[in-house]
């Protein structure tokens, strides 16, 4: 089977498995609505914390509340999409411990599609909705000298950011294969990464900003392109075209994550249970 055929087969398997879990969750619709609202409320507490912070200060690292809300909305919406699509990857370690991962290996479907769609949870739409609401409010409130390029960058940031976070989920799952679990390490880069990006880069040390820009390039989810949109200098020197590099960074991250996943699968040794 060629590469395109493998991708098509993976997408088909993902759709079928995710559809099964969606039908299961919609069996009890009242429970589904309650869990979505609960997820929306819990994730919204992060922004409540930011609002409480701004009740005591006028700016954070020189950034106003609408500007920080812009970063927050971009980060949470992009992460929410990746979490909806691949949020189950962090349980891979538990599957390896109980031996159920071996079952996935013998099924006639790509393993990545099976792991990614496992326990697909529509309740995670609450995070996406909450992030999108904050992002819309920020776009209406922030003072931006809009241009065609800046308007285009907003949806590009959301889509590219979701792809970058998805790559981190997959790379983290590959690391779990090598480390025989270590889900906490993966969560540090996924959930920890989106929390980091909710705040302006100017409040962090330059070494951390360099690491998030060049080593694990989460900064291209929102920090780098958002600095261009808001007309703010980035804490470390970058060429002007870097603001438009998020799609290229996303493609590179997905390619590297795919390679890491394939390497992890080849090196996997069954627990024997």
Automatic annotation (TrEMBL):
Swiss-Prot/TrEMBL keywords: Membrane, Transmembrane, Transmembrane helix
Membrane-traversing stretches: 32-57, 69-87, 152-175, 208-229, 241-261
Pfam families (alphabetical): ABC2_membrane_6
InterPro entries assigned: ABC-2_transporter-like
PANTHER family recorded: INTEGRAL MEMBRANE TRANSPORT PROTEIN, SLR0610 PROTEIN-RELATED
Protein name in UniProt: ABC transporter permease
Species per Swiss-Prot/TrEMBL record: Streptomyces koelreuteriae
């Amino acid at each position: 089977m060629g590469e395109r055929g493998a991708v098509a087969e993976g997408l088909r398997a993902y759709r079928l498995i995710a559809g099964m879990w969606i039908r299961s969750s919609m069996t009890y619709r009242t429970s589904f609505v309650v869990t979505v609202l609960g997820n929306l409320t819990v994730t919204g507490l992060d922004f409540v914390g930011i609002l409480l912070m701004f009740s005591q200060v006028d700016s954070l690292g020189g950034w106003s509340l609408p500007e920080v809300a812009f970063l927050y909305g971009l980060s949470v919406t992009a992460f929410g999409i990746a979490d909806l699509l691949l949020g189950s990857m962090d349980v891979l370690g538990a599957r390896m411990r109980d031996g159920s991962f071996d079952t996935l290996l013998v099924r006639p479907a790509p393993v990545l599609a099976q792991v990614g769609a496992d326990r697909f949870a529509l309740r995670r739409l609450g995070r996406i909705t909450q992030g999108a609401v904050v992002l819309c409010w920020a776009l209406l409130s922030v003072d931006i000298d809009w241009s065609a390029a800046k308007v285009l960058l907003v949806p590009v940031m959301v889509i590219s950011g979701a792809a970058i976070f998805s790559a981190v989920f997959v790379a983290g799952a590959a690391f779990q294969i090598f480390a025989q679990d270590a889900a906490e390490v993966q969560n540090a880069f996924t959930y920890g990464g989106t929390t980091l990006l909710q705040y302006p880069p100017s409040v962090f040390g330059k070494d951390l900003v360099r690491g998030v820009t060049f080593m694990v390039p989460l900064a291209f989810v929102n920090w780098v392109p958002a600095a261009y949109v808001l007309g703010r200098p980035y804490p470390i020197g970058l060429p002007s075209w870097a603001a438009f590099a998020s799609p290229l960074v996303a493609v590179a991250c997905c390619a590297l994550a795919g390679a890491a996943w394939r390497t992890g699968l080849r090196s996997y040794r069954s627990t024997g249970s």
